[in-house]
Amino acid sequence: MSNKIYFPYHLHTDYSLLDSCSKPEEYIELIVRDGGKAVSFSEHGKMLNWTEKWKMAKDAGLKYVHSVEIYLTEDLSDPVRDNYHTVLIAKNMAGLKELNTLVTKSCDKDHFYYTNRLSFDEFLDISDNVISTSACLGSPLYQLPEDNIYYDRLVRKYTFLEIHAHNDDEQRDFNNRLVKLSRLYNKPLIAGTDTHSSSQYKAECRAILLDAKKKKYPDDNYDLAYKTYDELVGMFERQGSLPREIYLEAIENTNRPADMIEEIEIN
Predict the structure, then answer these.
(1) How do beta strands 38-40 and 67-73 pair?
(2) I need a surface site. Which of 24, 58, 141, 201 has the fewest CB within 10 A?
(3) Is 105 in contact with 111 (CB distance < 8 Å)?
(4) pTM for the predicted model, two decimal places
(5) Would you call 241 helix, strand, or coil by DSSP?
(6) What are the phi and psi torsion angles at 39 (to 5°)?
(7) For residues 65 and 89, is the Cβ–Cβ distance under 8 A?
(8) What is the pLDDT of residue 220?
(9) Which of 192, 176, 166 lies closest to 253 in space, CA to CA?
(10) Residue 25: phi, psi to the nearest 5?
(11) What pLDDT does residue 28 have?
């Protein structure tokens, strides 16, 4: 077994719009077991029940990381259901307050269309108190053509470009595009897990839940269960899209935001 750790910053619980059957405390127990130092709950759209999650993390001796997987839209004036994905992570208390304000704004009537959203311009205006990653295949960097007027500005705005280990041709293509963008824009790669389940059993529960809701997502066939460091390395090996040194560095880079983030204290 490896004694190395990574930070699973892209992680969802049962607060993520019924897209998970795993509770925050289940992930906390796994991270403590594996020697992790921090926990992040990047729920879809909103940081629901975050003060309770903060207390759970603190009681377990983990750094609580305030984050959200927000939805972005190119233009608020003519609503379309584009809803691109982006992960936002607060670096400090000022960043936490900024994220909370942004999510509140994303829920008002001028922003909400099927779900709460921010515009590209609002995302580009976020301060340096917030770290951003390009998220999954729902990212604007995958969904938009590279000649889109926002594409260059979006790449420059992201703190990290997020590769995934899913054994899927689309993900392989996106990973290779992100490697090229990383070199062109001098942006570090980071390994996102998009974790939705604390175990394979809870993954089966999620599948039943989605079936009951008559919901289908592009990631339904992905392995989105929590992974140890060695298991995550093994997933990238099986995917076979990137050289070993690239994905190992991206996994190590997950610890960078955890180290950059200040301890959050609330009364």
Answers:
(1) unpaired
(2) 201
(3) yes
(4) 0.94
(5) coil
(6) -135, 140
(7) yes
(8) 56
(9) 192
(10) -65, -25
(11) 97
Rg (CA), the chain: 17
67 in Cβ contact with 102 (< 8 Å): no
Task: Tell me what pLDDT residue 219 has.
Answer: 53
Torsions phi, psi for 217 (to 5 deg): -120, 155
Backbone φ and ψ for 196, nearest 5 degrees, come out as -120, -10
Amino acid at 26: E
Q: What length does the chain have?
A: 267
Q: Please give the pLDDT value at position 198.
A: 87
In whole angstroms, give the CA distance from residue 259 to residue 267. Answer: 23
**How far is the C-alpha of 217 from the C-alpha of 202, rounded, in Å?**
17
- Torsion angle, alpha carbons of 187, 195, 219, 174, to 10: 10
Which helix (H) or strand (E) covers residue 159, if one does?
none
* C-alpha distances in Å from residue 173, one per residue of 86, 153, 179, 183: 19, 21, 10, 16
* Positions in the chain whose pLDDT score sits under 50: 1
Kindly report, residue by residue over 59-68, the tens digit of the pLDDT: 999 999 999 9
pLDDT single digits (tens) 122-134: 999 999 999 999 9
Q: Which pair of structure tokens corresponds to residue 46? A: 């909103």
Q: Sign (positive/negative) of CA torsion 141, 143, 144, 146?
A: positive
The pLDDT assigned to 203 comes to: 86
Helix (H) or strand (E) holding 210: helix 200-212
